[in-house]
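stage 2 :: seqdesign
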């Protein structure tokens, strides 16, 4: 779980010292704000109540940040599990079964987490799995008295060391991390920045102190002081008996490496091919690092300086705490979290509340910013309106003169418009007659009437006359509702439903014709005729005139009652048929309105005297 927080407190609780490190991520940079090591024996922190009483004011002074706990390595197990290629759901089930096997028989629930690692075998996949008993984690929280604090993460010593080493030496190919604590030595093998093996054995700094106390027959406190202040491996204070005691640690360390290399023969080169990094408070003893170099044959070197991260140097022994802080701040490439479910749920709720509070602060800041921008915008608008008012006032005279000129032009145009209208009408009439004459080519029909629509519709409707014979023919009955669209296809509409033929006459012509063919041929000829005429640009619409709009104008002697049809020809160009409105009633024109702008001077009114 990578918590998006800015500040965390990492607690690495050892048997003799409790190390606290306060870290903060600020705009992509990591800062170590504070660190402190608390001596458990010196402070008398024996019970959980004493520890809680000691840490409570310290946590409050540091701002009560979220806590990430480093679980001692001997309370956890870390292994690389090799699995075949399988779906994610199946992989998780296989790892869960393997975690139960590794955890052994226990009444406590097993908490585990895993991350994928690079596999060198085709068709296989490897996972770095870490597990621990939930009871051990909760017992550790109770012992430190922080069970009621905001716990954001729990990791192990080995995973914390891997995170720190990967941050300081990301390009190291093979490394062995050795961390000597007060009671335990942690050994971690890292290959290409990924955990490959982790173990611990109960031999640490206290083991060396007890051996020296037995040799000198003095209290352990005095032996601890001597061990940390004198070089017992060379010089005047050299002690062969103490060196022999350290040989036991060397033997156990060599055995741990040999066991792993025996199970992993393909790791390449043995221990000599690995870089050995020494860390922890146990290596602070003078001469110990040089003695172990000579006895193990390995090139042990101190832990790399954290100054490579452009951060203040951290004293020896804080490597695990620093790695835990990296993971909690989301800066670890392979985070492993052993946080119990109830703490995980509480942490997610805390993050949701934190995001909500952050959003509220941002919204408040945004609203304040919008108010400031709005006020500035209003002042800008007032200033702009004042300038526009001056321009409008100076341009009003131009508008008045333009209106006068426009009225004069409209008057002259309306004088000449009838001439243009008659000329256009003459051209339309001649072109229409030409198109009608051309339409009769190779067709057996004749026109019986040609009239403009205004004159045609001035006659009374056909149904008022009794001279017209009734239509009984099936063709006539079908043509009663025949209409054509602009593409020439027929539309069957009733006369009452036709909206195109209703209303006053349009500007155009009426042409009546007779088609003496049979019903189907007459319909086809009529359809072709309408389609041909409708394609002409002179017409805006060509359609069949409904019977209720027909007039008895044509001579009955030259018509065939059942084959008599009427076409309406609407003209496309009608711009000269209507005069321009008189000046003062120009569509879309609004008289200028003078409005009062604060600070612009005396208030003005509209031309009608109405206040703005």
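stage 2 :: out
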């Amino acid at each position: 779980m990578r918590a998006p927080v800015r500040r965390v407190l990492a607690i690495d609780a050892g048997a003799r010292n409790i190390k606290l490190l306060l870290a903060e991520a600020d705009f992509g940079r990591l800062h170590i704000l504070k660190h402190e090591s608390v001596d458990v024996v010196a402070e008398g922190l024996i019970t959980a109540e004493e520890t809680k009483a000691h840490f409570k004011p310290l946590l409050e002074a540091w701002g009560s940040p979220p806590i990430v706990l480093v679980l001692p390595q001997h309370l956890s197990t870390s292994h690389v599990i090799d699995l075949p290629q399988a779906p994610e759901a199946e992989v998780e089930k296989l790892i869960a079964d393997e975690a139960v096997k590794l955890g052994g028989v226990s009444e406590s629930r097993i908490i585990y987490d895993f991350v994928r690692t690079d596999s060198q075998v085709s068709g296989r996949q490897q996972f770095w799995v870490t597990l621990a008993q939930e009871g051990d984690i909760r017992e550790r929280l109770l012992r430190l008295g922080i069970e009621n604090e905001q716990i954001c993460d729990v990791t192990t010593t080995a995973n914390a060391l891997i995170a720190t080493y990967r941050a300081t030496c990301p390009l190291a190919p093979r490394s062995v991390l050795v961390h000597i604590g007060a009671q335990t030595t942690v050994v971690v093998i890292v290959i290409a920045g990924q955990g490959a093996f982790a173990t611990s054995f109960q031999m640490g700094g206290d083991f060396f102190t007890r051996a020296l106390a037995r040799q000198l027959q003095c209290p352990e406190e005095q032996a601890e002081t001597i061990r940390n202040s004198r070089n017992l491996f060379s010089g005047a204070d050299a002690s062969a008996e103490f060196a022999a005691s350290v040989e036991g640690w060397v033997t156990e360390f060599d055995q741990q490496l040999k066991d792993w290399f025996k199970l992993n023969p393909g790791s390449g080169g043995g221990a000599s091919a690995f870089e050995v990094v020494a860390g922890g408070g146990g290596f602070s003893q003078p001469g110990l690092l040089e003695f172990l170099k000579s006895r193990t044959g390995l090139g042990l070197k101190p832990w790399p300086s954290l100054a490579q991260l452009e951060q203040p140097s951290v004293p020896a022994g804080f490597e695990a705490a620093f790695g835990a802080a990296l993971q909690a701040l989301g800066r670890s490439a392979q985070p492993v979290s052993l946080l119990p479910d109830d703490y995980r749920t509480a942490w997610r709720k805390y993050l949701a509340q934190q995001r909500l509070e952050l959003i509220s602060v941002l919204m408040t800041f945004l609203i304040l910013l919008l108010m400031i921008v709005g006020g500035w915008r209003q002042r800008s608008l007032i200033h702009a309106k004042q300038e526009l008012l001056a321009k409008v006032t100076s341009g009003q005279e131009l508008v008045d003169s333009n209106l006068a000129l426009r009225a004069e032009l409209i008057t002259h145009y309306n004088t000449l418009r009838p001439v243009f209208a008659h000329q256009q009408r003459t051209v339309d009439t001649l072109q229409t007659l030409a198109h009608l004459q051309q339409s009769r080519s190779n067709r057996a029909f004749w026109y019986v009437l040609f009239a403009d629509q205004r004159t045609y519709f001035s006659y009374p409707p056909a149904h008022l006359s009794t001279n017209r014979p009734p239509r009984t023919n099936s063709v006539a009955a079908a043509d009663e509702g025949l209409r054509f669209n602009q593409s020439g296809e027929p539309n069957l509409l009733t006369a009452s439903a036709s909206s195109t033929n209703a209303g006053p006459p349009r500007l155009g012509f009426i042409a009546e014709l007779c088609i003496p063919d049979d019903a189907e041929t007459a319909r086809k000829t009529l359809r072709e005729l309408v389609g041909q005429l409708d394609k002409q640009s002179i017409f805006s619409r060509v359609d069949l005139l409904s019977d209720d709009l027909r007039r008895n104008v044509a001579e009955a002697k030259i018509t065939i009652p059942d084959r008599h049809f009427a076409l309406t020809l609407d003209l496309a160009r009608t711009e000269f048929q209507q005069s321009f409105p008189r000046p003062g009633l120009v569509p879309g024109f609004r008289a200028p309105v003078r409005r009062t702008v604060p600070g612009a001077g005396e208030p003005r009114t509209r031309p009608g005297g109405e206040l703005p």
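stage 3 :: structure notes
- The first strand starts at residue 7 and ends at 13.
- DSSP finds 14 helices and 19 strands in the chain.
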